C-alpha cells in the first residue's frame, strides 16, 4: 500500500520544492529562453547594435555548407562512438559476468574511467597519440604506420572516437553487467542441457533479453556523443584539422565565442535543443518503461 505524507501547513510543500524550481528556472529555462531570443537577432562585430531579423540566422544555417559538413561529422562521430562503445562494453560485461576469482578487482578497474573528466581523458589520449613523443605513435611507426592526427583528419577522428569510447565505456559496462546478472540462471542451464552451444545461447537467449538495456544505452550514447563530448574535442583537436572533428556542439562554441556570431550560435543552440528534446521524448515514451535494471 502506498504511503503518502500529509503536511499540516498548506504552504510548506511549496517552500520545500522552491529551491529546486529556482535552480531549474535559473540554470535551464532562463538560458534556453535567452538562446531562443538571441537566435532572432543579428549583432554587429563589436556587439554594440542588434537588429531583429526573424528567421534569417536559421536560413543562413540552412544554406551554410560548413554547417552541413558539421552535421555529417557529428553523425559519423556519433555512430562510431555508439557502435564501438556498446560492442566493447558488452564484450567486457560478458567476460566479467563469468569471472569467478578477482571479479571485484576486474569490475573496479573497468569502472575507473567514468571518474575521469572528459577534458582529462582527451589530454591523456592526445599524449599517447602525440605524433612526436606519444608511445602509441612510436609503436605504430615501428609497424610502418605514420599516425599524425594533427595533420590528418581521418586520424584525428580516430583519436577523438577512442578517447570518447574509453570515457563512456564504464557507464555502458555497468548497465550491461546489471542486465546480464538479472537473467535467470535456470534459463541458461535449461538451454545448456538441451545442447545449445555458448554462442547460440548468447544470440538466442542473452542478447534478446538484453535488448531493452541495449536500446536504452543506444539513445544515451547518441545523446552523449552529440552533447557531452565538448571536453574531449576541445582538449585534443579543437575541431581540426580543417574541421574534420568539428561536431555540432563544438561549432556552437566556436561560432559564438571565437567568431563572435552570437545570433548564428544561438540558432545552432536552438536546433540542438530541439534534437535533444526529441531524443528525450523517444526515450521516456518508448524505452524507459522497458528497461530492466
From TrEMBL:
**Which keywords appear in this protein's UniProt record, sorted alphabetically?**
Cell inner membrane, Cell membrane, Membrane, Transmembrane, Transmembrane helix, Transport
Q: One GO cellular component from the entry?
A: plasma membrane
**Entries under Gene3D superfamilies matching the protein:** MetI-like
Q: Where in the cell is it found?
A: Cell inner membrane; Cell membrane
Q: Which residues cross the membrane?
A: 12-33, 75-96, 108-136, 156-180, 201-227, 267-287
User: Has keyword Transport?
Assistant: yes
Q: Which domain of life is it from?
A: Bacteria
- List the InterPro entries: MetI-like (IPR000515), MetI-like_sf (IPR035906), UgpAE/MalFG_permease (IPR050809)
The processes (GO biological process) annotated in the record are:
transmembrane transport
Q: Does the keyword NADP apply?
A: no
**Residue ranges occupied by any ABC transmembrane type-1 domain in the UniProt entry:** 67-283
What membrane topology is annotated for this entry? Multi-pass membrane protein
Record text on subunit structure and interactions: The complex is composed of two ATP-binding proteins (UgpC), two transmembrane proteins (UgpA and UgpE) and a solute-binding protein (UgpB).
Q: Which family does the similarity line name? A: Belongs to the binding-protein-dependent transport system permease family.
The identity of this protein, by name, is sn-glycerol-3-phosphate transport system permease protein UgpA
Higher taxonomy: Bacteria, Pseudomonadati, Pseudomonadota, Betaproteobacteria, Nitrosomonadales
Q: Which gene encodes it?
A: ugpA_1
Amino acid at each position: 500500500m502506498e504511503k503518502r505524507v500529509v503536511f499540516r501547513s498548506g504552504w510548506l510543500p511549496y517552500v520545500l520544492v522552491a529551491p529546486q524550481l529556482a535552480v531549474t528556472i535559473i540554470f535551464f529555462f532562463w538560458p534556453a529562453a535567452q538562446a531562443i531570443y538571441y537566435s532572432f537577432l543579428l549583432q554587429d562585430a563589436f556587439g554594440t547594435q542588434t537588429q531583429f531579423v526573424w528567421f534569417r540566422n536559421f536560413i543562413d544555417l540552412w544554406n551554410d555548407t560548413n554547417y552541413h559538413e558539421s552535421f555529417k561529422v557529428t553523425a559519423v562521430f556519433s555512430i562510431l562512438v555508439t557502435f564501438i562503445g556498446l560492442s566493447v562494453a558488452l564484450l567486457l560485461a560478458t567476460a566479467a559476468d563469468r569471472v569467478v576469482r578477482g571479479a571485484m578487482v576486474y569490475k573496479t578497474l573497468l569502472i575507473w574511467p567514468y571518474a575521469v573528466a572528459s577534458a582529462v581523458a582527451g589530454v591523456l589520449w592526445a599524449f599517447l597519440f602525440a605524433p612526436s613523443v606519444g608511445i602509441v605513435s612510436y609503436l605504430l611507426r615501428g609497424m610502418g604506420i605514420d599516425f599524425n592526427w594533427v595533420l590528418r583528419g581521418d586520424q584525428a577522428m580516430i583519436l577523438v572516437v577512442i578517447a570518447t569510447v574509453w570515457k563512456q565505456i564504464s557507464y555502458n559496462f555497468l548497465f550491461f553487467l546489471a542486465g546480464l546478472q538479472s537473467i535467470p540462471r535456470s534459463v541458461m542451464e535449461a538451454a545448456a542441457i538441451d545442447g545449445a552451444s555458448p554462442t547460440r545461447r548468447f544470440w538466442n537467449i542473452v542478447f534478446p533479453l538484453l535488448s531493452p538495456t541495449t536500446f536504452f544505452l543506444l539513445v544515451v550514447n547518441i545523446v552523449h556523443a552529440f552533447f557531452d563530448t565538448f571536453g574531449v574535442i576541445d582538449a585534443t583537436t579543437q575541431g581540426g584539422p580543417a574541421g574534420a572533428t568539428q561536431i555540432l556542439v563544438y561549432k556552437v562554441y566556436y561560432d559564438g565565442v571565437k567568431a563572435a556570431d552570437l545570433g548564428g550560435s544561438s540558432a545552432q543552440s536552438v536546433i540542438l535543443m530541439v534534437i535533444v528534446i526529441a531524443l528525450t521524448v523517444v526515450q521516456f515514451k518508448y524505452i524507459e518503461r522497458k528497461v530492466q535494471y
